[in-house]
């Protein structure tokens, strides 16, 4: 999920619940080219398993400041040069584009052509290519303040650290209904943690830990952690979750720009599709197939049966 800042009202609670029980069912039909001036350009996947890459490109391409940044490289390396050419092909194109050659020229670490690859890892790698330095020019930069407060015998010593990253990972719970706003609130809530060793009072006991997002760039990337390990095997969970179209934290409001979906039980197999907003309209893109609308709710198999 990524979002761009927009001044808009917060969309929370009961309104989202109503969308989950079916009053606002997503409308997914084949895209009507007469109704929309701007449509995503389809990206081909002819048995090459490049849906992970195609989905990431569908989300990145419409970000104007990112396109501008890519085109700003006058002496690009091979990876940036390939992205420049791919973005230009999408800009010029109306027919679906074969992306595998561009992908191979970009050079994704540990990627073996023809195999499935984690879409989020691919996204992070492309961001890293475009913004090799994580400074304030990077539109994806997140600044996070982590604080630990010692709870031992009124010590109250506070240790703070400021870290920057390109994406936020939110843990999703399988047992109850959640929204992205809920997950963000939970991520930034203060937690009581046992077995903390304090350097100031030299005792072991409880501490209070808190993560606070203190700054974000224009675009926020959120990874939903929907896998758990059972006997050492990564297994997908079936959470009951709704994707908010607007998220708010500390007075900062962002609106949803796109979603990458994974269908399948394992991380190294299945199919990736993208939901992307263009010119105010939502589309779901499965390689070269363009559909109207997106899916914002994911219903747990266990709760729904
Ligand atoms: Zn202490």
Keywords:
nine-stranded mixed beta sheet; four-stranded antiparallel beta sheet; 24% helix; globular; binds zinc ion; Cathepsin B, Chain A; disordered N terminus; 305 residues; disordered C terminus
CATH class: Alpha Beta
The SS-based structural class is alpha+beta
What is the overall shape?
Answer: globular
Q: Might you state the CATH topology name? A: Cathepsin B, Chain A
The fourth-level CATH homologous superfamily is Cysteine proteinases
Ligand kinds: zinc ion
- From the N-terminal CA to the C-terminal CA, the straight-line distance is 28 Å
In the predicted model, the low-confidence regions spanning at least 5 consecutive residues are 1-28, 301-305
- Average per-residue pLDDT, rounded, comes to 84
- Multimeric state: single chain
């Amino acid at each position: 999920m990524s979002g761009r800042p927009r001044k808009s009202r917060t969309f929370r609670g009961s309104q989202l619940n109503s969308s989950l029980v079916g009053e606002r069912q997503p409308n997914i039909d084949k895209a009507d080219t007469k109704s929309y001036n701007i449509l995503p350009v389809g990206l081909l996947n002819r048995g090459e398993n490049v849906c992970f890459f195609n989905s990431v490109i569908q989300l990145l391409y419409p970000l104007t400041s990112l396109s501008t940044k890519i085109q700003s490289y006058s002496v690009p390396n091979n990876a940036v040069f390939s992205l420049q050419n791919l973005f230009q092909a999408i800009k010029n194109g109306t027919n679906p584009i074969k992306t595998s050659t561009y992908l191979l020229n970009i050079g994704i670490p540990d990627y073996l052509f023809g195999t499935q690859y984690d879409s989020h890892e691919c996204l992070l790698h492309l961001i890293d290519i475009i913004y090799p330095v994580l400074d304030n020019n990077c539109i994806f930069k997140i600044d996070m303040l982590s604080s630990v407060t010692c709870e031992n015998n009124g010590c109250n010593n506070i240790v703070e650290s400021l870290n920057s990253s390109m994406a936020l990972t939110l843990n999703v719970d399988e047992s109850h209904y959640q929204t992205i706003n809920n997950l963000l609130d939970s991520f930034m809530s203060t937690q009581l943690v046992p077995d903390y060793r304090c350097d100031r009072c030299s005792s072991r006991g409880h501490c209070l830990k808190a993560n606070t997002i203190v700054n974000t760039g224009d675009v926020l990337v959120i990874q939903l952690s929907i896998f758990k390990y059972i006997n050492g095997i990564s297994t997908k969970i079936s959470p009951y979750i709704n994707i908010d179209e607007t998220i708010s934290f500390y007075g900062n409001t962002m609106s949803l720009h796109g979603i990458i979906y994974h269908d399948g039980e394992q991380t190294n197999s299945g199919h990736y599709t993208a939901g992307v907003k263009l010119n105010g309209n939502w589309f779901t893109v499965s390689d070269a197939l363009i559909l109207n609308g997106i899916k914002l709710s994911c219903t747990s198999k266990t709760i729904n049966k």
